């Protein structure tokens, strides 16, 4: 299973749009400014192809907020940013904390971890609620390392992850844009369960539309 159907892609995009709307509202409350999140683009790749997929856009050291989740669907959720973008995002969220610099200090790392926590929790909670699957979350962690090192470490327990669902988006605050990726890394069984749940949700959504228009 290396691809998904157009129906599944459309349904996943809609689910993530719902999660991002909640995320933007939470970030706006945190920053006191309107936050825009660009419409997401979703794709699924074997984990072996993830490095080449992301390397075109993410170079050098990366800042990653990671959150392991468990349930019928288990895996590792990541907010992935270029290092410069991570510094910019933390400065935009809390500009009064310290003068702008080109490195993440302890305060900036804490801010970035909280932003990642808000984004990942909002999206995963939407998945859990709408797909009616129970998901529990670990405490989010921030990692600063090269992309290859990050990808080699994506393991849940002793089960090697096989697939990655990549969600491309951009944050816009105060006319500044920071490009980032949300990545969900899943095993084969979890990916199959996720896509089946997405199919079921899409079928129910179509039925509800038909009933409401009748």
Précis, in short:
This protein is of the alpha+beta class and 214 residues long. The protein is 47% helix and 29% strand.
Question: Can you tell me about this structure?
Answer:
With 214 residues, this protein is an alpha+beta fold. It is built from six helices and ten strands; from the N terminus they run αββαββααββαββββα. Strands 1, 2, 3, 4, 5, 6, 9 and 10 form an eight-stranded antiparallel sheet that branches. A hairpin with a 2-residue loop joins strand 9 and strand 10 (176-186). Helix 1 (6-31) packs across helix 6 and helix 3 crosses helix 4 (106-131). The model has no long low-confidence stretch (mean pLDDT 79).
Offer a few descriptive terms.
214 residues, alpha+beta, 6 helices, 10 strands, 29% strand
